[in-house]
Amino acid sequence: MPQNTPPSRFGDLAPSRYPGERLGLPEAGPRSVGRLGRRLGAIVVDWALASLISLAFFHYDSWANIGIFALMQVVFIPTIGGSIGHRLFGMRVVALAGGWVGVWRPVVRTVLLCIVIPALVWDSDQRGFHDKVAGTVLIRA
């Protein structure tokens, strides 16, 4: 954006150089945005754990699988900072406003994640719609 042009009412629309720059996060290392490879690895681990539990107790019922996956997200994000997969891949979920992520953010984030489509819609900071609505960001620990 040229120097003399005031920012639009929608904020600075200039492209960022790297994911997380607009959020004040570093380009790489601790506190940088968790990238796609780590995210995919984490969700595979979480889904596999939910599948194993579903197989053991519910003979692999698909609704039980989704319920177990959701429960793991809702319980572990506010308590250990992320799901088991997030933690294994060196990431954690934080509130953009700072402080404790609380209880409602993981619930909203998880409901939208289980719908799948919001997780496939990303912004330039590599935050899925589920993170944007919940006011969270997945960062490297």
Q: How would you sum up this structure, described in words?
A:
The model is unreliable at about 1-10 (pLDDT under 50). A two-stranded antiparallel sheet has the order 1-2. About 50% of the residues lie in helices and about 5% in strands. It has 6 helices and 2 strands, in the order αααβαααβ. The longest helix has 23 residues, at about 35-60. The protein has one domain (about 20-140). It is elongated, with a radius of gyration of 17 Å. With about 140 residues, the protein is mainly α. Helix 1 crosses helix 2 (about 60-80) and helix 2 packs antiparallel against helix 4. Its main location: membrane. It is found in: Cell membrane. Keywords: Cell membrane, Membrane, Transmembrane, Transmembrane helix. This is Putative RDD family membrane protein YckC. It is a multi-pass membrane protein.
Map the helices and strands.
Layout lengths: L35 H23 L3 H19 L3 H5 L2 E5 L8 H12 L1 H4 L8 H6 L1 E5 L1
Antiparallel strand pairs: 1-2
Describe this structure in a few short sentences:
Helices cover 49% and strands 7% of the residues. With 141 residues, it is mainly alpha-helical.
